[in-house]
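User: Can you help me understand a structure? I only have the sequence.
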Amino acid sequence: MTEFEVVVVGGGPVGLCLALLLVERGIAVAVVEAEAAPGEDLRASTFHPPTLDMLDRIGIAAELLADGLPCPHWQIRLHPSGARAVFDLSILADATRHPFRLQCEQWKLSRALRARLAGRAALIEGARVTSVTERDGGVAVTIDQDGAPRVITAAYVAGCDGARSTVRRELGLPFEGETYPETTLLATTVFPFEAHLEGLSNVSYCWREGGGNFSLLRVPGRWRVSIYPEEGVSIEAQMTPEALDASLQTVVARDVAYEVLEARPYRVHMRMVPRYVAGRVALAGDAAHVNSPAGGMGLNGGLHDAFELADAFVAMLREGADDRRLDLYDRRRRPIARDEILAQADRNRARMRERDPAKRRETLAGMQAIAADPARLRAHLLRTSMIDGLERAAAIG
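Assistant: Let's start by predicting it. Here is the structure, written out as tokens:
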């Protein structure tokens, strides 16, 4: 006998989404979260069309739409000339109910999910997982909450506890891949870039004349600016208020300094596990795969994991399927992460890191040709919006 049918380790958007999908189908769930209270830090902010379609099934998409900013098109841009390739997502109107990206901070999704879970799942906060062990036809999870050890048991465990996953470590799974050499600087400001850069999309990836690049992602009330730092200068030196202002001045020059609301550096990784499942334990989201944020696919891929994993748990706990149903979860999600999410994000990063002016112009011309051809544009957006990947996964038996 176990206390819960599923223990979800990790109370971020992927873990909370999985938990809600399960309680909606009558499954007893506990969510174990290391943080004592939810945060509102700078993380993912892009939701792709099929993700919104999925969240619509559980009544969450409407809340995000109310709290977010639709992005009907995105672009790749030369700065300061303004030459650009613009990718209009309306061409996907027959393939999705949401033919646009939505710019909305991920903590807003977590907030909505937590509200739906209140009183329906056990939420154990400020609890650090110290071990995960299969025994007696179930899984024992040892947690430490305020210095008091406790064991909770479940039929199955989902590790949704991020890139530094304790569950992954307990399974002994390597996190294979690489860490990119550069550090990215992220800053937010209320400055209205859209009023100063002609035709700017809410998601814009920009090459800067003379080398370097940056991206501009708009969320309600502010712009997120990802700055790719100069080589040969320490990150500490480039994170000073004066240095951040100098970087922002290269985007739009002003007579006054920029007001920077938040700023932090971050490293980018491309890693994944060799398998998503070990016995009665499965991994999802950043615990299983991490990638460059270029293209905004990391959080979306994690949420897609949650929907597929929820189906697997329901099949085993309610429909008589045996534990091999988890192998189907692995077969459907892991190749898509490897061949679609990580590979595409890596190509996006490499394209924007290109420094040769001639190659940039050649690449831009190629992207403009795609954007101008309806058939090629549709094919491109089906892939980059993650619709193709989901269809490929669904076809795997």
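Now, to help you interpret it: The two ends are 31 Å apart (CA to CA). Residues 325-353 form the longest helix (29 residues). Let me know which part you'd like to focus on.
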